[in-house]
Amino acid sequence: MRRDWHDIWGGAAMAAIGAAVAFYAMGQYEFGTLRRMGPGFFPTVLGALLAGLGLMIALPAWRRSGEARPFAAHEALAVLAAIALFGLGLQRLGLMPTTAVAVLVASLPAPRRGWRWRVMLAVAIAALTWLVFKEGLQMTMPVWPRLGT
Amino acid sequence: MTTLEGLLYGLTVALQPDILIYCVLGVVMGTFIGVLPGIGAMAAISLLLPITYYITPEAALIMLGGVYYGAQYGGAVASILLRLPGTPQSAVTSLDGYPMARQGRAGVALFASMVASFCGSIIGIVVLVLLAGFLSRAATSFGAADYAAMMVLGLVAASTIGAKRPSKAFAMVVLGLILGCVGTDVNSGVARLTFGRTELLDGINLVALAMGLFGVAELIGNITSAERKGSPPHVSLRQLLPTRDDLRRMPGPIARGGALGSFFGALPGTGSTISSFLSYAMERRISRRPERFGEGAVEGVAGPEAANNSAAISAFVPTLTLGIPGDPIMALMLGALVIHGVQPGPLMLEARPEMFWGLVVSFGIGNLLLLILNLPLIGIWVSMLRIPFRWLYPAIIVFVCLGVYSVRGSGFDIAAVAVIGALGYLLALAQFNPALLLLGFVLGPLIETNLRRAMLISRGDPVVFLERPISAVFVVATLALIGSSLWGAWRRFRSGPAA
Fold this sequence. Notes:
The complex is a heterodimer. Chain A is 66% helix and 0% strand. Chain A is mostly helical. Chain B starts with a helix and ends in a 5-residue tail after the last helix. The mean pLDDT of chain B is 84. At the A-B interface, helix 1, helix 2, helix 3, helix 4 and helix 5 of A face helix 8, helix 9, helix 18, helix 19 and helix 20 of B.
């Protein structure tokens, strides 16, 4: 039998997060009393609750069979990397290069080979964002890398 | 102000040319984004939220309202033609809409969803008008304990009613509440769970959270699948015409769905998703030939579409009158209002009548526009579905990033989207519902503030929640919901490992 691993791992993760939050909040912030609740009251109680719920999810799942669902690892990695690069690059490199790089990275897992369409897409989207966000909405941000400084 | 005066006043607000323009803009852009496969109302609103920073609060709310129901309508197009629903509620539409499209009746399915959406919205507007005045008067007698008890009921209701695994649903709510704790504690000024990052002192950015959980996580799952779905059928205006038999089958489901939706939409915690599921289940149960459902029954399109649109509008009842968002989309709306310096609550109807009545009337106008525009524009929406997804999603990613950046010019927030997006994808993979996380996140600080205030007033005596009649009702209802779901879990557990 294939166990319901999604629920086992999901529940275990919830239990771990909950326990971590509860202990951290208990150690760092004042708990207070029911009348005057301190900043630690809410996180501690919620963390304990989440830990309990996590166990309630994970333990019964051990006795249950579940189906596997595909994990889109390439897609996830490319999309998240594109966003992270965008966040890191926008203020340093400016809008145009950052957009182009993010688009190229994001398009890596797309189910079609070849580089030409990816480059064209990157240029087109960079131009579009410049038009909409810089010219249209007048957002303040660097467009090109600042040379020198 | 009487209802009639209010409506007339609202008409003068909503018909101002600049407001009307934003209403049209919202409806069209909402439909445009909603049509894109894999993107629902949630992502549409977060994508367009930044634009509203540049306009007046009334225009902003009216535009976002237009985006909301426009996106719902657009989502129906994608789920009927390609079975690529952007949201759970349009997933219901695809159950019978997609088989209809396969039988060459795509036009009729689209027509049914359009008309049902319109009628559902009108029902929702009537309920909004009837309930709002009454509720804001009642709400002035609400104390801190009542507010806290009501919000807890909302969260418990959202995670138990209609959830397949209440424990997983409730875990999402609690995780959301914990994330809502991040930032400066209002009462003591202590920075909680920020791990020394000054960017987190104001809490996690709502837009970053919404975009990460909905926009990004949904994109990842769709990159490969959306590409394989093939191209949509051609739909001409003539094909939109329903047969006499179709017309005869539609009014009943629409009326029932609309009523159901307006009821569940107005309750905090339940919303359009539950309404459309319930409407579908109800239509199948009362049908004389339930076997037609899933094979292209027009009732299965009309009922849920009416239900989710009327729920979408009546969801504004608790948001505007109590300041309590009933679902994540309302939470975003509330966030947008607060950014504009408008605090929704019992006093809003009196203090900002132009806001309330303008919005009510604009709902009507917006839905009328949707109906008028979309009949001729249907060809354009269908052809948009032919754009390969590989061209669209990189652009969406860039727009998401810039949308988040525009909130307060922070690169940190963009990086946060990546982290939250990873979390959102893992949650979706393990079938945890991220919408409940967002609901908990938004309600968390409100609950904590009211709970602490109530306990301070009562000198630490929790009996106060049972002494006040309003909160006692909420507490009893909450306990009943928890009890019944625990009982269900115990029975499942005792019956041994299920197949």
